[in-house]
């Protein structure tokens, strides 16, 4: 059985003081939870701070991004080894905000941001492979833009992203991979994907992995949903067969809200 995951992506929020307070709040509510794998992904500047707060709990630490090289002249980048040395177990790879896939904001701004961050299917694959080689567990994000959904290309886009992300990854390493289906139009917009449709795409991801590896391995792999998950909609999502948890932005910045998401995951999917 797949243990559910509730991962909080704090994005570019929280200085060290705020991060400590939020991590304390989550630890007080869910630190000893054994039925849900809670993951906190603070900004890199707060990894050590949050790592100390959750040190004696069951909560895992995750980073929001990484670079695939081990060291060198890559100003501003962080290697897998550096993240491990901060206590990270997980790393988010290929978030749409890093891929520059901003389907719901002003197009000019989207182009600018794509140029700044610019993750592609190829860099996402390199990051995922480097993470696994170093012993980090990647949470690989995939998902379509609004225009792609409107053009009926959701399945094509998601399957292509999944296949590209997994290129060269062994069956053994697949055990440490988690996917997050994050339709770009649902991220930070308040517009959640219909639970049945989110389940359908998560099943598609599992099926794609099944075709590439085996049905058994795909069955063990966790697939999360991300995109405006909040206490009001989490239960409908967690009741879906192929949704093993959430990658949560906004609602993870409030310990009460995030605690409610964890409780829902535990009640519906915890074994
Ligand atoms: C995310 O950051 O991955 C995300 C899904 O954000 P939000 O929950 O705010 O939509």
Can you give a write-up of this model?
This protein is an alpha/beta fold. It has one domain (5-254, 262-269): Alpha-Beta Barrel (TIM Barrel), CATH 3.20.20.70. The chain contains 13 helices and eight strands. Strands 7-6-5-4-3-2-1-8 form an eight-stranded parallel beta sheet. The longest helix is centred in the C-terminal third of the chain and has 18 residues, at 195-212. It is globular, with a radius of gyration of 17 Å. The N and C termini lie close together (8 Å). The mean pLDDT is 94. The structure holds phosphoenolpyruvate. Residues 9, 11, 95, 182, 187-188, 226-229, 247-251 line the site of phosphoenolpyruvate.
What is the CATH superfamily classification?
A: Aldolase class I
Q: Give a list of the ligands.
A: phosphoenolpyruvate
Order of helices and strands: EHEHEHEHHHEHHHEHHEHEH
End-to-end Cα distance: 8 Å
| Overall pLDDT metric | 94
Number of domains as seen in the coordinates: 1
Uncertain segments of ≥5 residues (pLDDT<50)? Answer: none
CATH architecture: Alpha-Beta Barrel
Please give the largest β-sheet. Answer: 8 strands, parallel
For the secondary structure, the number of strands is 8
CATH topology: TIM Barrel
Number of helices: 13
User: Helical percent range?
Assistant: 40-55%
Q: According to CATH, what is the class?
A: Alpha Beta
Strand content: 5-15%
Write the layout of secondary structure elements.
Blueprint: E1 5-9, H1 16-30, E2 37-41, H2 47-53, E3 60-63, H3 80-85, E4 88-93, H4 96-99, H5 107-117, H6 121-134, E5 137-142, H7 146-150, H8 154-165, H9 171-174, E6 178-181, H10 195-212, H11 215-220, E7 222-225, H12 234-238, E8 245-248, H13 255-269
Parallel strand pairs: 1-2, 1-8, 2-3, 3-4, 4-5, 5-6, 6-7
Helix pairs in contact: 1-13, 8-10
